[in-house]
TrEMBL record:
Keywords: Sigma factor, Transcription, Transcription regulation. InterPro entries: RNA_pol_sigma-70-like, RNA_pol_sigma-70_dom, RNA_pol_sigma70_r2, RNA_pol_sigma70_r4_t2, RNA_pol_sigma_r2, RNA_pol_sigma_r3/r4-like, WH-like_DNA-bd_sf. It holds the Pfam family Sigma70_r2. The lineage of its organism: Bacteria, Pseudomonadati, Bacteroidota, Flavobacteriia, Flavobacteriales. PANTHER family: RNA POLYMERASE ECF-TYPE SIGMA FACTO (PTHR43133), RNA POLYMERASE ECF-TYPE SIGMA FACTOR (PTHR43133:SF45). Residues 109-158 form the RNA polymerase sigma factor 70 region 4 type domain. SUPFAM superfamilies: Sigma2 domain of RNA polymerase sigma factors, Sigma3 and sigma4 domains of RNA polymerase sigma factors. This is RNA polymerase sigma factor. Residues 14-79 form the RNA polymerase sigma-70 region domain. Belongs to the sigma-70 factor family. ECF subfamily.
Length: 164
């Protein structure tokens, strides 16, 4: 691979690395798993980059590769023994004036989303990233109508999970 192509890839990755971190947060429970998944997604992006034709935005292509990599590894990891969630055992010091309401609500939402299926998780993630349905459908390889219908069903599922 040429130095120019390598430089272009590194620049695009640096500019869009938050996408990968968000995907990692959605599909992992601890820092080590997050870092491992980040590394694996980066490797997959690097391998696939020479085939990137620029027909879609780099970020859209990156979402697709990141989500596909995460889903593939997540499915493989389901066969492993489940361990304690890192966030549930980490010691946190809280100041008296600190209001953690929003943080707790966000954690509840993430916990609820983690109960969804692989594609549903990806759809919610893209929706929360303010992607429009045409970009969501392109990223996930489903029709726009299907994306809308699935999202409405997912919203109902999340309501049920969050308000039993």
């Amino acid at each position: 691979m040429s130095k120019e192509l390598e430089h272009k890839f590194v620049t695009e990755l640096e500019n869009n690395q938050n996408i990968v971190h968000k995907v990692c947060s959605l599909y992992t429970n601890d820092r080590d798993s997050h870092n491992d998944l980040f590394q694996e997604i980066t490797i997959q992006l690097w391998k696939a980059y020479p085939k990137f034709r620029g027909e879609a935005k780099f970020s859209t292509w990156m979402y697709r590769v990141a989500l596909n990599t995460a889903i593939t590894l997540y499915r493989k990891s389901k066969k492993r023994v489940r361990t304690q969630d890192y966030d549930s055992v980490i010691f946190k010091i809280k100041a008296d004036e600190y209001d953690d309401t929003q943080e707790r609500q966000l954690k509840l939402m993430y916990d609820a989303v983690k109960q969804l299926g692989d594609i549903d998780k990806a759809l919610v993630f893209l929706y929360l990233e303010d992607k429009d349905y045409s970009e969501i459908s392109e990223t996930l390889g489903i029709s726009e109508v299907n994306a809308r219908v699935k999202m409405n069903r997912i919203k109902n599922k999340l309501r049920t999970i969050l308000n039993p």
